[in-house]
């Protein structure tokens, strides 16, 4: 296939199968990310594969690729899922999300014509058989992938979206590190807590780059309310498989940073962290609840941010929005859940259910002061 706006040496392929498709592309995928204009660790093949192996081991996958002179220049990794949408059965094609809050993106080399590449990807997507809705579960503002919905809309396909909680972000290159957290009251309390802890013994921040100590993190997280509520990593075999593999892969590719705050050798707070392309990420954090009064979650973060600044880290995308994170930054990245519906009857029915019928039922419920039975 010749791609509009590109050299005649460009070749597009569509591969379908299982997880072996992504595994076979992994090395090329990593090389492409090195040449991409933006990159996140959660979009790397090792994270994507760890997630899929743990939660969707038999998932049918689709890889749309564009190569120039045999070199991978564009990749759209997708999966099929037979589930529900707005309470109705649906055949989905969606872009996998290896972590909540991670961005969806078609990976494209800097030198590629992004507009032409996205046109080519969309031409393939709309021609794929047996789908009702294409889901992009986490699309960041001002990113190229937004063009897919715009292209579909321009051709008469139904599209829809809704806002998701933004991603709070600490911009280390734009703030005074000595004034983190920015609230003077919280900053004073954290300093006071550190002094009180230091009076109890030796307080130190340790950083490990080997996955063989990650079990300490899992044990700490499971010791508190997450363990009691069965939401800790150790409470779910799939989560344990995922994070154990992710830790080993992060070590292998040299971006793992396990930060452990210890008091007399006892672990009291921890970050499952990563330093990746001048950004810091922490997909999981944990603390010892017996030390909650010492604000150990805030304390470890203040120490990590100072160390990151010294290492040239420019920002920390803090993941899914939580109230405590707003005490550290007012900056955030907006994002949306994007949907494109097939022109089939079922696709249009799903669109109507989510974006026409549901809003009307909500208005009706507000008027009568009761929630109607949607099933009836």
Describe this structure in words.
The chain has 376 residues and is α+β, with helices and mostly antiparallel strands. The chain has two domains: 10-157, Aminopeptidase; 169-333, 3-Layer(aba) Sandwich (Aminopeptidase), CATH 3.40.630.30. It is 36% helix and 29% strand. It has helices at 20-34, 45-55, 114-127, 146-154, 184-200, 214-222, 225-228, 237-252, 296-310, 345-368; strands at 10-17, 61-68, 71-85, 88-94, 107-108, 133-140, 159-171, 203-208, 256-263, 266-276, 279-287, 315-317, 332-341. Helix 2 runs antiparallel to helix 8 (237-252) and helix 5 crosses helix 9. The longest helix is centred in the last third of the chain and has 24 residues, at 345-368. The model is unreliable at 1-7 (pLDDT under 50).
Full CATH superfamily name of the largest domain: Gcn5-related N-acetyltransferase (GNAT)
What radius of gyration results from the CA coordinates? 23 Å
- What is the CA-CA span between the terminal residues? 49 Å
Give the biggest beta sheet: 9 strands, mixed
**Percent in strands:** 25-35%
CATH C-level of the largest domain: Alpha Beta
- Summarize model confidence as the mean pLDDT: 93
Note the overall shape.
Answer: globular
Question: Which CATH-level-2 architecture of the largest domain?
Answer: 3-Layer(aba) Sandwich
Residue share in helices?
25-40%
Keywords:
376 residues, globular, single chain, 2 domains, Aminopeptidase, 9-stranded mixed sheet, alpha+beta, 4-stranded antiparallel sheet, 10 helices, disordered N terminus
């Amino acid at each position: 296939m010749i791609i509009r706006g590109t050299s005649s040496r460009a070749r597009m392929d569509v591969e379908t199968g299982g997880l072996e498709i992504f595994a076979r592309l992994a090395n090329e995928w990593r090389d492409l990310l090195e040449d991409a204009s933006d990159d996140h660790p959660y979009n790397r093949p090792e994270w994507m594969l760890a997630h899929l192996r743990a939660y969707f081991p038999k998932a049918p996958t689709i890889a749309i690729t564009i190569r120039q002179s045999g070199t991978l220049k564009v990749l759209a990794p997708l999966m099929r899922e037979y589930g529900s949408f707005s309470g109705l059965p649906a055949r989905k094609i969606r872009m996998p999300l290896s972590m909540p809050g991670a961005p969806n993106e078609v990976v494209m080399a800097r030198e590629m014509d992004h507009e032409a590449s996205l046109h080519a990807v969309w031409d393939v997507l709309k021609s794929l058989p047996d789908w009702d809705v294409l889901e992009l579960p986490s699309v960041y503002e001002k990113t190229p992938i937004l063009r897919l919905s715009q292209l579909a809309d321009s051709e008469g396909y139904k599209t829809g979206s809704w806002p998701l909680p933004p991603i709070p972000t600490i911009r280390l290159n734009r703030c005074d590190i000595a004034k983190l957290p920015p609230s003077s009251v919280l900053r004073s309390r954290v300093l006071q807590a550190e002094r009180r802890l230091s009076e109890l013994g030796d307080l130190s921040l340790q950083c490990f780059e080997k996955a063989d100590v990650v079990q300490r993190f899992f044990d700490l997280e499971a010791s508190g309310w997450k363990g009691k509520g069965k939401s800790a990593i150790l409470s779910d075999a799939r989560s344990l498989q995922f994070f154990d593999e992710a830790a080993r892969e992060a070590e292998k590719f040299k971006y793992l940073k396990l930060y452990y705050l210890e008091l007399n050798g006892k672990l009291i707070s921890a970050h499952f962290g990563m330093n990746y392309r001048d950004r810091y990420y922490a997909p999981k954090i944990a603390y010892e609840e017996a030390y909650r009064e010492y604000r150990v979650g805030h304390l470890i973060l203040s120490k990590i941010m100072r160390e990151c600044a010294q290492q040239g880290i420019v920002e920390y995308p803090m993941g899914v929005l939580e109230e405590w994170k707003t005490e550290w930054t007012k900056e955030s990245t907006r994002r949306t859940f994007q949907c494109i519906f097939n022109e089939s009857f079922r696709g249009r029915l799903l669109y109507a259910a989510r974006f026409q019928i549901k809003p009307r039922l909500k208005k009706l419920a507000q008027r009568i002061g009761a929630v109607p039975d949607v099933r009836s």
